[in-house]
Amino acid sequence: MATGVYRAVGYRRVSMREQVDGHSLDAQATHIRQYAQTQDWSLLKIYTDAGLSAKKDSERPALTQLLADARAGQFDVIIVDKVDRFYRHLGGLLVALDQLNSGGVAFVSVQEHLDFTTPWGKLMLTVLGTLAEIYLDNLKQETRKGKKQRAREGLWNGNIPFGYCTGLCSHCLDPNGAGYCPNYGRPDQGDGKRLILHPIDQRAVRYAFECYATGKYSDAAITDLLNRYTVEIDGRQIQLRHRGAPGRTPPGPFMRDSVREMLNRVFYTGQVRYQGVDANGKSHRRSAPAEIFAGQHPVLIGADLFQQVHDLRALFSYNSREKRGKTVRVFPLSGLLRCGYCGAPLRGTSAHNRRYYRDASQIEHTLDCPQPLIDADEIEQQVIEYLRSILTDDAVTQANAAQTRLAQSDARFKHVQELYVLGEISRELYEAEKTRREDLTASLTTTRFSATIALHDFSEQLSHWNSSLPIEIKRLLRLSLEGIFIRGNAIVALQPTLAFLPLVGNPTSWNCGPDGRSFSCYNMAAYSEAGHPTFRSHSPYRA
User: Fold this and answer.
1) Is the full-model pTM beyond 0.70?
2) Residues in Cβ contact with 261 at an 8 Å cutoff, skipping those fewer than 6 apart
3) For the chain, first and last CA: distance in Å?
């Protein structure tokens, strides 16, 4: 450290956004200046990080610049109001101070009255740094417990999800409030503790889900549709806009990332998910949620529509809508069809404007398999006919009854939830109905029940199968079948999913071919002998 009049700089920081406009930054600056004056030091500059955390690995531009200037020898001492303004994490604090000491730069804390260049100061530095780290760890634990409790009570965490608002219209602070929302400045429509539907933003959410459910639009296409969509309210045309991120980005056009997040948000179905943390205490937004709780907010998107969109997104992640400007042909049985001779999967292919399934070993020239090319339309129709054959009246009746019980339970709970929000029933009654609903769902959630629900969905879709989207057909086929085995021009065995297992009886062992592999399947000989036709094999390459 240089001798004579020291060249000093200050560093100040606040971690909470609401402190930025308060007195905390000014108070720190005052203490830094007063200390420099009492020491007759020349205060050159005060570096400021406003609204940023001091935890480990946090990004603080002003601190980064301060350390760079220290290495360049631009000053002799750093003054902070308190140690935790500089670093809360002991490891980061010690590393930073080690860098400063190696460059001959001293460090002083005003409130602790410590100069950490002295032996006593270094000892106290370790103690204070440890206490700061303990405080941060405790704060994380309390924050996690608070977030989980809010989720358990059906309340949101973090920023208010797009499509909702607090309902405090008389003194609205929502970015999509003034000049946008027709209720701005009017009497309150909520208590601020529970969310209500935003009169305009909710339309954007519904429109996005409805568009995606058609299977015709990607995230980018829906983004473009939203940015061109207007609604008429009180005689004026309102252009839809995203509310942005409070404190970071202002309201403006929708972006593809915001649409993707919207379409994956289970909150719209009336549920709150608590993400939880991993072994290192970190939360991963895209990982499976730790728990899901019933929310106190109104449902914006029905569970069926949300599940349909969710399933379509999973399928489209592996099946593009377009390739080189042309619509991609979908092969619903790809991934399900397997060769009964060699066990290889059958892949979708096109020739002469027709769709076919072909043995993968022939495509890759790994085996000389006798399996002929299969006409896609005919085998897909054959599989559909089989699925129709197992839909007995009793099975469909059972499926409908199970679905009705679930729907009635959900409707009853929704009504009780609304009464609780309005304050017309006690929390005890609300919790009792919540427990009753959970117990009913748990009692029905068996393999047989799952099968009847899946069968119910299938019976609904089979009634208008020809008008269904190919990608939707692919999803439904995977609800019922895991494998379809082909030999020549006939289906010889089927392997149902776990959900369909109770509906079709016990499996028989069937040997796949000369490689000796066997599968747990259902022999189709009886099905064929009962008069169900086989399909024809085709070779479009024949002269």
Assistant:
1) no
2) none
3) 92
Give the CATH number of domain 7-145: 3.40.50.1390
Look at residue 530 and tell me whether its pLDDT is greater than 50: no
Distance CA 142, CA 25 (A): 26
Confidence of residue 158 (pLDDT cuts 50, 70, 90): confident
CATH homologous superfamily of domain 164-316?
Answer: Putative Large Serine Recombinase; Chain B, Domain 2 (3.90.1750.20)
Residue 357 CA, distance from chain mean position: 35
Instruction: For residue 218, list its beta bridge partners.
Output: none
- Nearest 10 degrees: Cα torsion 469, 472, 477, 483: 100
**Domain parsing of the chain, residue ranges:** 7-145, 164-316
User: Among candidates 85, 10, 35, 81, which has minimal Cα distance to 55?
Assistant: 85
Is 316's pLDDT higher than 50? yes
Extract the tokens encoding 304.
């069926």
Tokens 């205060």 sit on residue: 43
User: Whole-angstrom Cα distance, residue 496 to residue 482?
Assistant: 5
Least trusted range by pLDDT, from 190-194, 320-324, 354-358, 519-523: 519-523
Which pLDDT score, from 0 to 100, does residue 527 have? 42
Distance CA 43, CA 202 (A): 53
When computed from its CA atoms, the radius of gyration of the chain, rounded to whole angstroms, is 32
**Which of these, 393, 368, 374, lies nearest to 492 by C-alpha position?**
374
Secondary structure (3-state) at 456: helix
What's the length of the chain? 543
CB 75 within 8 A of CB 42: no
Task: Give whole-number Cα distances, 125 to 49, 93, 261, 317, 377, in Å.
Answer: 22, 9, 44, 52, 76
Two tokens at 467?
């008008």
DSSP string, 124-182: HHHHHHHHHHHHHHHHHHHHHHHHHHHHHTT---SSPPTTEE---GGG---TT-TTT-T
**What's the CA gap between 366 and 74, in Å, rounded?**
70
Q: How many whole angstroms separate alpha carbon 374 and alpha carbon 378?
A: 8
| 20 pLDDT tier (thresholds 50, 70, 90) | very low
Calpha distance 156→141 (Å, rounded): 18
d(CA 403, CA 536): 39
From CA 298, how far away is CA 182, in angstroms rounded? 20
The number of CA neighbours under 13 Å toward the Cβ of 258 is: 21
Q: Is the pLDDT of residue 404 over 60?
A: yes
Contacts of 341 (CB under 8 A, 6+ apart): 369, 370, 371, 487, 513, 514
In contact, 64 and 52? CB cutoff 8 Å: no
